[in-house]
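Read as chain and fold; for instance:
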Amino acid sequence: MDLNGKTAVITGGASGLGAATARKLAAAGVKVGIFDLNEELGNAIASEIGGAFAKVDVTSEEDVDTGFASIRSALGQESILVNCAGTGNAVKTASRDRETGEIKHFPLDRFELIIQINLIGTFRCIAKSAAGMMTLEPTDGERGVIINTASVAAEDGQVGQASYSASKGGVIGMTLPIARDLAQELIRVNTILPGLFDTPLLQGAPDHVKAALAAQVPNPSRLGKPEEYASLAVQMCENAYFNGEDVRLDGAIRMAPR
């Protein structure tokens, strides 16, 4: 896909992987719309790159519909969607208090929330965006590209990551079927599985914690840079034969149980 002049929507685009991708696509001539809950950061990034911002909660059908309508009104119908919106928690399936012996199980509402945001929210945006892309005339045999964000936790889930791993595993599991669903409409679908990246999730951690995490990565032995995620996302957009794939971006790490 020739990126110049295209429109993209990036969910979770106000920080971390999404913000880096927004900047990378904008530098390639793409008009970028940002979905996020953080209005201050979202508007700042949109202003920086000459894009547009919409406050969107991906668990809300109304928010997503309103967000797409707003971005399309400002920038035109998107031919690129990058799903970066997501979150996680760390709770064991069942656990025992070491002092009192009390046994507790994972609160199901907290499990469901992660699924709603990471998996259903991603699918909601895919479905709505794909329907919009189908209205476009093909250019060089393509109408659009959709890129999702899973995690290496989908394959190497650690202690306490049942909900997060399930949600990200679901994103991987639906990638190929959706790519097949949309093949005749000339829309490609791929998913990136980031490893340990220096995003807002880790930026508040003490230096010694980040150093310990970086030491787990075989090569290069450091945290991933959001710009490296963005580079892969751009390659997935530009390379017309890149379709139906789930790609780890992790410095060869395989996560230990803890």
In short: The mean pLDDT is 96. The two ends are 41 Å apart (CA to CA). The first strand starts at residue 7 and ends at 11.
